[in-house]
Design a protein that fits this description.
The complex is a heterodimer of chains A (73) and B (615). Chain A has 73 residues and is α+β, with helices and mostly antiparallel strands. Chain A is built from two helices and four strands. The longest helix of chain A has 15 residues. Chain B has 21 helices and 22 strands. The chains are: A alpha+beta (73), B alpha+beta (615).
Chain lengths: 73, 615
């Protein structure tokens, strides 16, 4: 399932690229794409495990970029 | 951002103060530098410390902190403050530029209507466009946005469609005309009968497309983020080696001298400027395109467009108007008027586009009582009795079947023969009109290095060939079914070079599979054709083929900017790195290679938003 998020608080384009790489490493997430200019993140994952995946996602974001917040759209 | 600006200003003043006055007491000088440094760099230091605990040593905050603290360590106070100060100025400029281009795109897309004035129980109620139902009547005053698609039932006005189509010329509209949501009503008060719910209306379709455009990245963007991934660690490791090895190996080498060189490396190691200027250019390019009424669904498509090698067009509705018109009336033995009248009466009950065009050409009220007998012979034409006359109106087959002695006409288009009382009375030629700018489009495509232009059509061979010849199209495939179009495009895809791209341009009707198959699917006349908007990669809001030329030019301009930025930023950085390694450059040059380059690259990227000189 493709899920879109609004992603706020990214300082720079390189930080976005790094965060994208870190999120791609989360096993349950098949693909991750962050667009710095539009402040959008697109993830593909299995919706059955959504709760667990979102938990992992938030943990990763907190570790990589503590100032970043996301919101599902 | 305001707070940051104030901090930078204060630090800058303190810095210049210390530099210009140059107190005799070293301590005062150093004190002022340190205060200035803390004001401007505290945030960075804080983040740097946080990053150490997270093991992120290649983070730019950390690198800047090390570079500046190191400079303090070897007694280069002014440099230390300058690096931090200019780094922050660069950052500020960067976020200003990003903010500015985000806003300028957002304002382009400021077509969302906030309310609708709807007639309910003889009163006007102001409601959200979401709450209006099909069939209700809304009223739109001058200066307001049309909130929902519908038909004008009362009033006359001029509409500004710029936000939708990029067309600067206002359009007149009056009773009976269809109007699209997102247009701005300029001068008259109009009443509109709503035809579509808000969720289905043009404005929400477009907003949906723009906001949810796929975040597919271009190759250039991927290249640069990959480059950054390796660039920073490599530069940092070299810096480390520079600081440690030469003082140990080379006799008489000063540690502080090599440390200075290493610190310059750290200053240049930040990749952010480079990384931001690329998506910023694409973002600007996409924004520029939407100003022209062309919606691009991702930077990868804008990039691909600049490499277009083969342009494949659908004929009807794309290169031609898709509207049939009577081109010629050739009466034999009767008057022109009579021939048209007979044909129009006979075709009265048919809804075929051909019949409509004949009725339009006749353009008079039809007295249906005069149509006494009427029979439609499928695929051939019509047999009817109009008043006292028995008439036949149809194609060649009908004439042959009824053994009429007629004159075969070889002109291009659809030919309708007419007989009155079994006597041949002449023919009417109907054909589709070629769009005004179609020829110019094909010519300019060739000037813009498109190697091959192809036209696909379901129409007859003669018609296809004559249109292709008139427009100067290289190759034409006619009499195609939708499935054949897919096959032709598959074949054409094999003939292009590896880097070249194939663009298919269609009106979105029946060609969704081809739009998807082509490297770049371009749908024209996007207003109103939902399936096209979904299947295409690029949507041209108006139905002018010439917008393709503009889009290709814009994509080339964007790619030029992207390449300039990549080459310029990387070469300046590498040059300064080499100079620094040999002790030939100072930290000032390193600051330029970092901040100066990013400011220049960003200013260059912002050029992509400008479309004034694209014709």
């Amino acid at each position: 399932m493709n899920v879109k998020f609004k992603i706020k608080g990214l300082d720079c384009a390189n930080c976005a690229a790094e965060l994208e790489r870190a999120i791609q490493k989360i096993e349950a997430i098949n693909s991750a794409n962050i667009n710095f200019m539009t402040e959008k993140m697109e993830l593909e994952y299995d919706e059955n495990n959504e709760e667990e995946i979102l938990k992992k996602l938030k943990k990763t974001i907190k570790r990589e970029e503590p100032d970043v917040s996301i919101e599902k759209i | 951002m305001k707070k940051k600006t104030i901090k930078i200003m204060v630090a800058l003043i303190l810095y210049l103060f210390a530099m210009l006055i140059n107190f005799e007491n070293e301590l005062i000088n150093k004190g002022i530098f340190i205060v200035s440094y803390i004001i401007v760099g505290f945030e960075i230091l804080k983040k740097a410390i946080r990053n150490i605990f997270r093991g992120k040593v290649f983070d730019e905050n950390f690198l800047m902190a090390v570079a500046t603290l190191g400079a303090f360590g070897i007694g280069e106070f002014p440099e230390a403050v300058a690096v931090m100060l200019f780094y922050q100025i660069g950052e500020l400029f960067q976020s200003y530029a990003v903010d500015k281009s985000r806003k300028s795109i957002a304002s382009l897309m400021d077509i969302r209507p906030d309310f609708a004035n709807v007639y309910r129980n003889d009163k006007i109620e102001k409601v959200s466009p979401d709450d209006v139902k099909i069939g209700e009547t809304i009223i739109v005053k001058p200066g307001e946005k049309i909130p929902l698609d519908g038909i004008i039932v009362e009033g006359k006005t001029t509409l500004d469609t710029k936000a939708l189509t990029g067309e600067a010329m206002p359009k007149g509209a009056s009773e009976g005309d269809e109007v699209l949501s997102g247009c701005i009503n300029i001068n008259g008060v109009i009443k509109i009968e709503v035809k579509k719910e808000y969720g289905e209306s043009t404005v929400s379709k477009i907003l949906d497309l723009v906001e949810n455009a796929s975040s597919k990245k271009s190759k250039s963007e991927n290249f640069i983020t990959k480059f950054a991934k390796y660039y920073t660690p490599i530069v940092v490791i070299i810096a480390l080696i520079l600081a440690v090895i030469p003082p140990l190996v080379i006799s008489g080498a000063e540690f502080s001298d090599w440390l200075y060189r290493a610190l310059s490396f750290l200053v240049v190691s930040c990749p952010c400027a480079l990384v931001i200027s690329i998506p910023l250019s694409f973002f600007g390019g996409i924004g520029g395109a939407s100003k022209m009424g062309v919606l691009v669904k991702g930077s990868n498509y804008l990039e691909a467009l600049s490499n277009t090698e083969i342009a494949v067009f659908d004929k009807t509705g794309t290169l031609t108007e898709g509207v049939f018109e009577v081109q010629k009336v050739n009466p034999v033995g009767v008057s022109r008027y009579e021939l048209l009248k007979v044909a129009a009466y006979a075709e009265n009950y048919s809804n075929h586009p051909i019949s409509k065009s004949i009725k339009q050409a006749y353009n008079e009220e039809i007295d249906e009582k005069q149509i006494i007998n009427y029979e439609e012979l499928s695929g051939r034409g019509i047999v009817a009795k109009i008043g006292e006359q028995n008439v036949l109106v149809g194609n060649e087959k009908l004439m042959q079947e009824k053994q009429i002695n007629f004159e075969k006409c070889n002109e291009i288009g659809t030919i309708i023969y007419v007989t009155i009382e079994e006597k041949y009375a002449g023919y009417i030629l109907i054909s589709d009109k070629i769009k005004e700018d179609a020829k110019l489009t094909i010519e300019s495509l060739k000037k813009n290095n498109i190697k091959q232009t192809v036209m696909l059509t379901g129409d007859k061979k003669e018609v296809g060939e004559s249109v292709a010849k008139e427009l100067g199209i290289d190759k034409v495939y006619a009499e195609l079914l939708p499935a054949d179009k897919v096959q032709r495009v598959e074949e054409l895809l094999k003939t292009k070079s590896q880097k070249g791209k194939l663009a298919f341009i269609g009106d979105g009707i029946n060609d969704a599979p081809v739009l998807t198959l082509a490297d770049i699917g371009i749908a024209m006349g996007g207003l109103g054709a939902d399936s096209a908007i979904e299947a295409a990669d690029i949507v041209i809001m108006t139905d002018e083929p010439s917008k393709i030329i503009k889009s290709i030019k814009l994509s080339k301009k964007t790619m030029r900017i992207v390449k300039q930025n990549i080459v310029f930023a990387i070469s300046v950085k590498i040059l300064v790195l080499i100079l620094a390694a040999f002790g030939l450059s100072t930290m000032w040059q390193a600051v330029f290679a970092d901040v100066g380059v990013s400011i220049i690259a960003i200013l260059n990227a912002l050029r992509a938003l400008r479309i004034k000189n694209i014709k």
